[in-house]
UniProtKB/TrEMBL annotation:
Site for Important for catalytic activity and assists the phosphoryl transfer reaction to Asp8 by balancing charge and orienting the reacting groups, residues: 123, 154
SUPFAM superfamilies in UniProt: HAD-like
An example Gene Ontology biological process: carbohydrate metabolic process
Matching InterPro entries: B-phosphoglucomutase_hydrolase, Beta-PGM, Beta-PGM-like, HAD-like_sf, HAD-SF_hydro_IA, HAD_sf, PGP-like_dom2
An example Gene Ontology CC term for this record: cytoplasm
Record family assignment: Belongs to the HAD-like hydrolase superfamily. CbbY/CbbZ/Gph/YieH family.
Top EC class of this enzyme: isomerase
CDD domains with a match to the protein in the record: HAD_BPGM
Organism the protein comes from: Mesobacillus subterraneus
Residues the entry annotates as binding Mg(2+): 16, 18, 178-179
ATP-binding found in the keyword field: no
Record's protein name: Beta-phosphoglucomutase
């Protein structure tokens, strides 16, 4: 396709949730630790980092593999274990308030809405709608992609592509925001402009088009500038 055939304008921003909008990592860790302890496995925070951005069932598989006991559970029992972990986690989520939203996020959401930029969520968390409600920002999101309705989880691009499709926006006109290596690969393979929030070296190595140390740096002006430079390189 000739570059002039389709102008690349920023039309949608698609967010990851954990590590981008708020931090539930500590609560995930506590919930997984409680479950793991109940089946004789100890996990530490370093191991918990490996669980970022992947599904609940895949997280469980990694924990069971680490403990060398994956073969001792049937698929039905694994589902029950995952449900038990989620029960612990949901109990912890009752402590969440709008104070738990990351710096600059609400202001950025308001700016996007004011400028008619569509907003979507592409999170592996099945509890995402409840978290948005607790943070009191549900109103900003036209779409929350359902992780249970995509064929493959991150690092596959499916969930970001699903969000773009539901927003009726070409992926090339979307920006995805992530904090994990798996998430950035998902954005990249979806054909979107990617923003990595975190350590420069790690985010760049993961392929982020733009790296921010903090969500407080998110502004529409900055996004448009970088997106337009990126679009000219197509």
């Amino acid at each position: 396709m000739d570059k002039g055939e389709q102008k690349l304008n920023l039309k949608a921003v698609i967010f990851d949730l954990d590590g981008v909008i708020t931090d539930t990592a500590e609560w995930h860790f506590l919930a997984w630790s409680e479950l793991a302890k109940s089946i004789g496995i100890h996990i530490n925070k370093e191991f918990n980092e490996e669980l970022k951005g992947i599904s609940r069932m895949e997280s469980l598989e990694r924990i069971l593999d680490m403990g060398g006991i994956a073969h001792t559970f049937t698929e039905k029992e694994k589902v029950e274990l995952a449900q038990r972990k989620n029960k612990y986690y949901v109990q912890l989520l009752t402590q969440m308030t709008p104070e738990n939203i990351f710096p600059g996020i609400r202001k950025f959401l308001e700016e996007l809405k004011k400028n008619h930029i569509k907003i979507g969520l592409a999170s592996a968390s099945k509890n995402a709608p409840s978290i948005l409600d607790a943070l009191q920002i549900t109103e900003f999101f036209q779409v929350v992609a359902d992780p249970e309705k995509v064929a493959k989880g991150k690092p596959a691009p499916d969930i970001f592509l699903s969000a773009a499709e539901k927003l009726s926006v070409n992926p090339r006109n979307c920006v995805g925001i992530e904090d994990s290596i798996a998430g950035l690969q998902s954005i990249r393979d979806a054909g979107m402009f990617s923003i990595g929030v975190g350590t420069l070296d790690i985010m760049k190595e993961a392929g982020a088009n733009l790296v921010l140390e903090s969500t407080a740096e998110l502004t529409l002006e900055r996004l448009n500038g970088m997106f337009n430079i990126h679009a000219r390189d197509y």
